[in-house]
Structure formats: C-alpha cells, structure tokens
Amino acid sequence: xxxxxxxxxxxxxxxxxxxxxxxxxxxxxxxxxxxxxxxxxxxxxxxxxxxxxxxxxxxxxxxxxxxxxxxxxxxxxxxxxxxxxxxxxxxxxxxxxxxxxxxxxxxxxxxxxxxxxxxxxxxxxxxxxxxxxxxxxxxxxxxxxxxxxxx
Length: 151
Prior knowledge:
The protein has helices at residues 2-27, 36-58, 118-135, 139-146; strands at residues 89-93, 98-102, 111-112. Residues 72-76 have low confidence and may be disordered. Strands 1-2-3 form a three-stranded antiparallel β-sheet, with no helix packed on it. A hairpin with an 8-residue loop joins β2 (98-102) and β3. By secondary structure, it is mainly alpha-helical. The termini are far apart.
C-alpha cells in the first residue's frame, strides 16, 4: 500500500512540474515556475528518481527472474548458476551504490553488478532535490525581481 502512495506521489509531482514548465514555455516567462510549491515538487520528483535508482542498484545481483545474473550461488537450487562457485563473496557499499562479486578479497576478476547509470542518477537527483528545496524560500523574491514593473 505504501509503495503505491510513494509511486503516485512521485509521478504526480513529475506531472505537475511538467505542466508548470509547459505553462512557463508557453507564456515565455519564468513566473509559473518560480513558486515555492513548484520548487518543492521538483525536489520531490528528483528525490523520487534518486530513490528508485538507489533501490535498483541495491537489488542488483539478486534477481530471481534472471538466474544468470546471480553472483553468489547461495540461493535455492532452482535459481543456482552452476558456473558460479558457492564460495563467492559479495561486497556491498551504500554510497556510492556498489555490489561486487569476488572469489576472495582483492580478486582481480571481481565484477561490479550495479549498472553504471545508478550512481550518477542518485547523486544528481539528490543534488537537484537539495538545490530546489533550498531555493523554495527565495522563489517569491526571484519571481518579483523577474516580473516587469507595470507602468
């Protein structure tokens, strides 16, 4: 249930930000985008994408639907890869996201299981979320400075 709430909140933020950006492009003005609520929605969308990439990276190497990608062999017989020895080590790192399969510590033939796109998305999403959340209190001031003075 909570997964559906998080998924709908993330996708809802992304859709709302897309509508605001389309309105800003159509009006040729930054006013629809420079609002505190939009900054919070951008932060939510970026955090949602970073979280999905983070979870994707940490679940790498243990996909029961693709037994050939398993690296440690300590799974049920149904999903065991006969070409991988049972004594494989799995070294994990939280940040940067890393899952390394090696025969022994320092093995030169060790393989990184996390795809190369995961860490850039995690760090870029986190940075964008922090930046847009920090911009939210100042969005009104920026909007007033960019609006033309009537007269």
